[in-house]
Amino acid sequence: MKNIKYITLLFAAIIVTACGDPDLRFEQFEEAKKGAFARNLSGVTGAFDAGNIAGSTVGATVEFYDENQGQNVASYSWTVEYRSNGGNNGNDVAAVSFVTFNSSQFTTNADGLPELTFTLGFQDALDALGIDGLTLAAGDRFRFDATITKTDGSTYGFLQHGPNLISQPPFSALARIDANVVCLFANDAMFTGAYELTLGPTDGVWGGPFGESGNIVTLVNSGATERQFTTPYGERDLGGGFPITPTLSFVCDEVFVLDTDLGASCGGAGIRVGQGASAGPGNFDLFDDTTFTINFSDEVLGDCAGEIPDITYTFVKQ
């Protein structure tokens, strides 16, 4: 299993393309001749934090466009539905009316278009849906869908927009917003810095996939509740290994190792690490970053490995 002669490192060119063009105009779409649309000017901000329901919101700044420079937009309305990830006793709740912003609440921006800055509140969503916030679980989803109503009574929402338009993030985000329940850290410095790893009791396919016990890694902030670190993969049995950068996702009291393709193959099959089908998540304390654990699968496939072991590491802050 630990014969490394089949290891082939793969090098790939990564092409990164922009997801949204801030200068993208509605005139570029056929729908602009007959519909009405909201364009995202700010990006969707905020989060639904289970530890601060009353103070949590998501929102954005938008401008409106139609065949008359947005002047025929009468209102911008939102519904909200709930998709359970275990909260609310596992029960989903169908969409209900949530909030309507009328044209009298719009301002006019420098381009002469109607503009609106709005927020959608966590507690308000719970009240509208009749859900007790104490029953929520991490990963529960609140889905907000928007509808624009014009002065002639015609309406335009997520399902009415054509694929060319809705595939553009500046537009799609303002027709639909998904707010998942998360637990935010007290500050961005939590779960960052140097940590010493303890491996065990199970080895990976080629020793410790994130190094041996005593290995010290540096966690860096890669998202509101995500952290990354760089470490050699297979350091013990692969002649020092090769560097990988896994991502840890902290979800309220559980830690997940996000799938990481190592850019290598064994016997023609790829090598990756990740949560896998069998490994349960690790654990952490939202208010104490001195130690936490991770569990994940060392997924070496093909004819180099007869098993996919589940690995545990304990991290202790230095």
Number of helices: 3
Provide the residue-averaged pLDDT: 80
* Net shape: elongated
Report strand order across the widest sheet.
1-20-21-23-24-13-14-15-18-19-22
Strand content: 35-45%
DSSP E strands, number = 24
Helix share, percent? under 10%
Q: Give the N-terminus to C-terminus distance in angstroms.
A: 34 Å
Structure characteristics:
single chain, about 325 residues, mainly beta, eleven-stranded antiparallel β-sheet, 3 helices, 24 strands, about 5% helix, disordered N terminus
Structure, described:
Residues 1-31, 162-167 and 169-173 have low confidence and may be disordered. It contains three helices and 24 strands. 5% of the residues lie in helices and 44% in strands. The strands form four sheets. The chain has an eleven-stranded antiparallel sheet, with no helix packed on it. Strands 4, 6, 7, 10, 11 and 12 form a six-stranded mixed sheet that branches. The chain has 318 residues and is mostly beta strands. It has helices spanning 122-129, 163-166, 169-172; strands at residues 7-9, 36-40, 45-46, 48-49, 57-66, 73-83, 93-102, 107-108, 114-121, 141-150, 155-157, 176-182, 193-199, 216-223, 226-228, 231-233, 242-244, 247-251, 254-257, 260-266, 269-274, 282-283, 291-300, 310-317.
Summarize the structure.
The chain is mainly β and 318 residues long. The protein has helices spanning 122-129, 163-166, 169-172, and strands at residues 7-9, 36-40, 45-46, 48-49, 57-66, 73-83, 93-102, 107-108, 114-121, 141-150, 155-157, 176-182, 193-199, 216-223, 226-228, 231-233, 242-244, 247-251, 254-257, 260-266, 269-274, 282-283, 291-300, 310-317.
